[in-house]
């Protein structure tokens, strides 16, 4: 269903305040003095039911709609002025956290000019060799207690990771975002098949990955500047290991936005018509439930 002129203006305003087009359309689809079922919102927004469910859950996190208690899930939007106010407050908090994170990085880099701190205590480490990066990733993942999230592209070569399996067994979640070329890579398909169906694991695919990073428990960041692999000569690597919760929190928000755009790896494979994965557990299309928590990261697989 196409939005009316007034609705289009509101959608544009919501997008300018940080919402995605799909989120804005779902919000506008709930603008009536009653609660809506997911199927109704999907119809108003012109989206698949499963996608509408994910976007509505995102709106709930933003505080732009609430779930009404009852048997069938129903949702009610807050008034537009209240919604805009909450988005403005959210953007202001994002800016504050971003400034805090960037100031922390600058201060950490400035501190490198002073006396060297004890081993492993520097807020920023520059890792130039692949073995340094792999060792640091492995040691950090072994200490993970909550979640490891990662954004990678085809230059990352996956491998079996005992540390990742150990932490999954301990209840740590792993989520990975990959770019579309990974679907054509046999190592990446085998990697997904090896972990598919494991509680706490999930992977999604987006069209393009611009920044490669890993976050461990939203407190440690691996920002991969140069990754040895496809299109990179020799064995050169360059990554920043940063122990800064503000930066990690900011990047985690960016990860969540990418995650919302992504397609589950198994669904992306179906779209590419590649061979079915051994061990993969496809999610039925149209399933009306939130995406699974968990998914692997670059840091995990190299642990």
Describe this structure in words.
Helix 2 packs across helix 3. The radius of gyration is 21 Å and the shape is globular. The chain has two domains: 80 residues, Winged helix-like DNA-binding domain superfamily/Winged helix DNA-binding domain (Arc Repressor Mutant, subunit A), CATH 1.10.10.10; 181 residues, Endonuclease, Chain A (2-Layer Sandwich), CATH 3.30.870.10. Helix 8 links the parallel strand 6 and strand 7. It is 45% helix and 17% strand. The strands form two sheets. An eight-stranded mixed beta sheet has the order 4-10-9-8-5-6-7-11, sandwiched between helices. It has a three-stranded antiparallel beta sheet with strand order 1-3-2. The C terminus is likely disordered. By secondary structure, it is α+β, with helices and mostly antiparallel strands.
> How many beta strands in the DSSP annotation?
11
Output mean pLDDT.
77
User: What is the level 1 CATH name of the largest domain?
Assistant: Alpha Beta
Largest sheet: 8 strands, mixed
Please compute the radius of gyration using only Cα atoms.
Answer: 21 Å
Gross morphology: globular
Helix content: 40-55%
Question: How much strand?
Answer: 15-25%
In whole angstroms, how far apart are the ends?
48 Å
Number of domains: 2
Structural class: alpha+beta
CATH topology name of the largest domain, in short, is Endonuclease, Chain A
Cross-sheet strand order for the largest sheet: 4-10-9-8-5-6-7-11
């Amino acid at each position: 269903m196409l939005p009316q002129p007034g609705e289009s203006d509101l959608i544009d305003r919501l997008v300018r305040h940080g919402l995605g087009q799909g989120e804005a359309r779902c919000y506008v689809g709930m603008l009536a003095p009653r609660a809506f079922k997911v199927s109704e919102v999907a119809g108003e927004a012109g989206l698949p039911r499963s996608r509408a469910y994910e976007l509505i859950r995102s709106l709930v996190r933003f505080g732009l709609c609430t779930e009404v208690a009852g048997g069938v899930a129903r949702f009610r939007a807050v008034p537009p002025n209240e919604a805009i106010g909450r988005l403005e407050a959210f953007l202001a908090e994002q800016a504050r956290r971003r400034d805090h994170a960037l100031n922390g990085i600058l201060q950490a880099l400035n501190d490198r000019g002073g006396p060297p701190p004890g081993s492993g205590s520097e807020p920023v480490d520059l890792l130039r060799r692949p073995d340094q990066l792999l060792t640091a990733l492995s040691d950090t993942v072994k200490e993970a207690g909550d979640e490891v999230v990662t954004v990678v592209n085809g230059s990352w070569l996956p491998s079996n990771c005992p540390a990742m399996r150990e932490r999954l067994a301990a209840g740590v979640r792993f989520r990975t975002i990959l770019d579309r070329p990974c679907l054509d890579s046999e190592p990446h398909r085998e990697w997904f098949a090896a972990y598919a169906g494991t509680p706490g694991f999930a992977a999604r695919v987006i069209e393009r990955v611009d920044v490669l990073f890993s976050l461990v428990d939203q407190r440690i960041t691996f920002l991969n500047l140069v990754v040895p692999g496809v299109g990179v000569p020799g064995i050169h690597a360059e990554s920043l290991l940063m122990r800064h919760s503000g930066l990690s929190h900011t990047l985690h928000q960016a990860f969540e936005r990418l995650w919302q755009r992504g397609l589950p790896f198994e669904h992306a494979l179906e779209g590419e018509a590649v061979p079915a994965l051994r061990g993969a557990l496809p999610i039925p299309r149209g399933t009306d439930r939130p995406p699974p928590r968990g998914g692997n990261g670059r840091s995990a697989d190299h642990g």
